[in-house]
């Protein structure tokens, strides 16, 4: 600030008994201080300069003049050279002393003080003597006009005290404004980058967006008056990290048996974070057990933090939670899981293995579990065997082993699997497996191989069993067969059950037989295979109400049926559909088309042979009349063409029946023509009046391969190809009604023709009369008597 050049801020002076705005603090005793009205002998103004006869005020300088002899009651009581000028600007609450020295000019003295032209100033004179006396000068100086300030060349002081309220992507900046500054230039950039952003504003605050989280920025501010800039004010601010900043941290855990080395990247999205909270909790089915939370600090300049967690348990699952710590911000944690290592399998051993025979073919085992074991392998060895045979696996510390041959001495062994490696086996004492009547017998190591009409059985024989009863039942348990099997001394029994139905579920019981004892057996179930699929039987194809209806009998084991269909016009190409039903219908069949159908059986992707093809000839639709066209008529000859309708277009004619008359009111003549006699389909009729306007022709056709006659079509205009009104056959009950309608239509048509001719004759007469002007009344009478009238 420019006051720094002329004013020294010495602190606040204790001032008492002050009278403001011209009031005088009067001294006691003989020194009575300033006179009443003393302020009239003092002036306060901007310094004036006279240049080339023009007086201008220098608004950056204030001049205060006073005349001590005229202003003090007894000026000799005071030390005038100690007089001090005090000031107070509109920005100040207290009086401040100036360092300006007064200069004498005759009986007057003056002070010249630097001021800021945009502020108001008040001044006060203090004089020391036996007691201090104070005079408040009433004149308020400033502010100067904007024009004066601009001309003065005054340079404002820089802003100060930048404060920032930041988020992850924005910041709100505010600062102490500069005296006299009209606006502010601010530019800022990411520290370490040369990309700047600029703003010019009038307020002393600015909200900035589109910032990078967790980033340091440097801001430079300048105050402006016109084109004059203050000195730079530089300050830094930093944005906060994102709330999910930890989601991008790459965490690495290297576990040992009782510790873990944890490291994570402390840069990128968390570069501004220096402290982290690390929590490790063991995972259990009931409740997490957590270690004491530790605070880990980032070392300066190191992008990766490494921390070692001690006191962990071997082969234990843990959850690791790392939470970044940042002032006034709650940042989401990042969690990962890890498992500490297990002890070497060679150092672990199972203890207290107990084996107990609990039922026929079953032995119960229990042992002391091994810490860190993921599973246990169970092996057995009969007394006459030299090698262990693995039979079961479990993740528990007990198991019931089945498929044990009764009446046989066994040993059992259990080993633990730790990190994929197997511990040393714990071996049980010798145990004799039971064969008791209280529990159902299960044939040891029973294996069933299914076929379509038999099943092959295989199981281990117990020496104490003399024979077996093989009982096979269908799933309903109503149709059962039994047979007795006497072992041949082999340890493995092979037996086949025959005469079974394919694709049928059966239950099997293998019951031991020992004299004097009664045993039961636990049932086993099997299903015979499908065998070779058979084609459906009783396959039929019938035409019902214009639809092709297919039916066939069910085939055992069938999972579906494939229907093949083709027509006589697609050169044997087949298409097919698959269904689970025993019938199928096909609609929208084309008349006079022959359709062929066949069915095969599907059994789990296998297909049987197809049935014999069944054919259906679709009859024509007799209710639709054919299309009758008059190709040509002249004199007593007429050529017509009679063709099937569009729907019956596949049908061929065998015979044509034509009825014709030169006058619709007279009886029709009928003629039947074989289609073979008209190979080009043009039928020639010769009758008197074939070319007359009243001529009418009707026709129908009998379709080939059927006895079906079509409806009757009629036509009377050459080239007429439309399907016209239906004239039924001679046997129809509608014949009288239709003939009457035709006669009425012809009469109306004749009347219309006569009326047209009459009007034409009348017009000819009027023209002739106008030309000659001599027509007589007799001629008029004759015209009126004309038959057409």
UniProtKB/TrEMBL annotation:
UniProt cross-references to SUPFAM superfamilies, sorted A to Z: Fibronectin type III
Regions that span the bilayer: 734-756
Coiled coil: none
Limits of the Fibronectin type-III domain: 245-343, 349-436, 532-621
Keywords carried by this UniProt record: Membrane, Repeat, Signal, Transmembrane, Transmembrane helix
Region spans: Disordered: 766-789
UniProt signal peptide: 1-27
Protein name: Fibronectin type-III domain-containing protein
Organism expressing this protein natively: Tigriopus californicus
Lineage: Eukaryota, Metazoa, Ecdysozoa, Arthropoda, Crustacea
